[in-house]
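Fold this complex.
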Amino acid sequence: MSTPSTPQPGNPTAQPSYLVDTGARKGLMAWLTTTDHKRIGLLYLYSMTVFFLIAMGVGFVMRLVQLTTFQKLITAQTYNALFTVHGVIMIFLFVIPGLPAVFGNFFLPILIGAKDVSFPRLNLLSWYFFMAGAILAVLSLFTGGGAPDTGWSFYAPFSLKTGTNVSLAVFAAFVLGFSSMLTGINFITTIHRLRAPGMKWFRMPLMCWALYSTAWIQLLATPIVAITLVLVILERFFGIGIFDPAKGGDPLLYQHLFWIYSHPAVYIMILPAMGAITEIIPTFAKRTIFGYKAIAFSSMAIAGVGSLVWAHHMFTSGMSSFAILLFSLLTMIVAVPSAVKVFNWVSTLYKGSIDFQPPLLFAMTFIFLFCIGGLTGVMQGALAINVHIHDTYFIVGHFHYVMFGGTGMAFFAALLYWFPKMWGKMYSKKAIYASWFPMFIGFNLLYFGMMILGMMGMPRRYYVHLPQFHTMHVVATVGSWLLVLGLLMFFGTLLYAILKGEKAEDNPWGGVSLEWTIPSPPPLENFEEIPIITHGPYHFEPQEGKS
Amino acid sequence: MNEHVHRDDFGSRLGMWLFLVTEMVLFGGLFIAYSYMRYRYPVEFHHGGGELNATLGIINTLVLLTSSLTVVLAIVAVQRAEKQRAMLFLGTTLVLGLTFLVIKSFEWAAKFHHGLYPNSPHLATLPPGEQVFFGLYFTMTGLHGLHVIAGLSVLGVMLWWVATDRIRQDRYVHLENGGLYWHLVDVIWIFLLPLFYLAA
Amino acid sequence: MSEHVEPSAEYSTDHQGDHHAEHPGYGTFIKVWVLLLILTGCLVGVSHLGQTAAVWGLLTLTPLKAGLVFYFFMHLRYEGPLFKVVVLVTLGTLLIFFALLFSDVAFH
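Structure:
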């Protein structure tokens, strides 16, 4: 690709970095009213980090409760509220928006050679909706009947009857849905309309394909949960009866409608994560990705088939056997495109020129943990197994492997990879490696421990447990302490680097996609001139030096 | 160097269509819920439908169909730089939309008068399937009504923009987008009519 | 959009005229409106012929009316393939949700 004349840092005629206030407003107001996609990405990142740490704290307390079988630190009601809040914050405020909102916003325009997204002001509105939803969710903890105690899935009929503040919490989720949908609209339009000259569809970095597939899920699935949540509110306030058996309604209908969104939602969570991994691996293997088109198409296939499997969350709820059979089969099928990706990543590494760096470590951690999570998912898709482990800790272990070991680790990998570009600084690699050990060990003690507990029969969302489960609970809780230690070390290292880190070069990893051709941090409009693209995104020269 | 906010009418329409996708799925979810319940309670749905005023439903359909016509005629007028005509057509659209809302409010008022409203004592005496029918009726026509109000607000702004030449022959993508939204509101009603008033 | 390496159409100067080359006039839309009124009339008529006829009317005439609004009033006919694909994908998705849901409901 042609290299536009990139101004060197320190060049007085160069565009200032996006971190410098150049508009009419300065300081905090400049950030709160920005329409620059990079700043919006950071706004999401900073707010999301706060929410993650809060929810992590809630999880920490939940694990403490399991340490003492008979001396309870908190009441059962409080425990119910804790796991609800932990789930709502983690899922709606961190994992679902996660990679698209932070890295999609920051990098999508840069990756396709554009100066911003198609609708910059709509982008800012998306963040406002995100914050509004977050504030409403926090409010629901302290107003009305107190924090909801239904679990993050708000199942009818309990969610219709409980005196806790379900309506506000559910309305918060409704508002958050707007954030998601508007981002989806923005990304699809941006990819269709703003690719640089010569950037054909199959020359886009695969992160863009991941974001594109995700955006379609955001548009086609989110409104279903939006209307479902509205119906819950209408039921609670006006008793319309659609989920209430006494009035002819059906709680099973609630489950169907809820999961029609919430299953595709997990693909919203994982697809951008996989996209980030697909960006990282070629850079540290110094070769092009194995099977570009296979990965592009498998992203679309995961989005498509993933929308057909929702009722595998409902095998024990009273569905017809025919439906169970059908959904079980579809669930097996959806594993295939994911497996294709894993195969392609590993094949890219094989006989590559490996440059071992923190982003690669976390990318490989992702692959390992995601495989465990994914395979346990396939197990759960079989009815015979599902009947035994549904609503046990096995499920909890599974989804933490995919959501945390998967999306979470990929989020960290992406952060480590793009950190020097975003802030123009470098972190201490040793400190990151040091944080990895307690994180990895703690993670597996905690969540593999949960899967063992589940197979032994420990139900989920229970505030107490029988004595035979106690040992494993202790193991898991100790694991949670190691995990939290690792997380704090990780965040601490990065925070220190943002404030006082060493200056980073424009291309510390030797990457070849467009973001590595512009300064670190990027200038306000990304490119001095829009580049003209003449080849694919992972074009490594045989003897790779720094460009 | 500063042309990064360049005009892209096609992109603007694409964005609007993508937003309409979310609206289609939003109401689609309700239609799916309706079909689920109708399958379970065919007799009660039939009985419930008999309580509704089909004549008013049909009149409202004609009102909305005509309002769709007038909004698209307004666009043609703008394309031909016929400003007065455009404002006339847009104004007519607004009047028709308001007419729809007035008729709807009469319908609802009549229902309330007969004790047919969510959680009413009378409703509680009806068979469960019929309660669900009315729950869906109020929810779906209510949500649709909210969208009519939203659409009218948007079109009202469009009328003002035509009047102040912010929408003109060489720049009218916002009017097109407003029209698209209005047409979707019409399409939803096209489905609501038979589901509640005719084939129930 | 062309596939060879030149500044892609989106990046050249504004050209909002080209895909508006065909602007239907007042007459076209009025004809469509009359057709919609007729179809509504048919729908009402058919619904008086009994439950089954009413349902068939619902399943055929209503999508036809909606189709006319999409195709003419919403300009879908005059747009490129992208918008048509967008609408078809959406309707297809809803249809699949409906069908899979009924794999449960219909077999209870």
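The interface with chain A takes residues 3, 5-8, 10-11, 82, 89-90, 93, 96-97, 100-101, 103-108 of chain C (CB under 8 Å).
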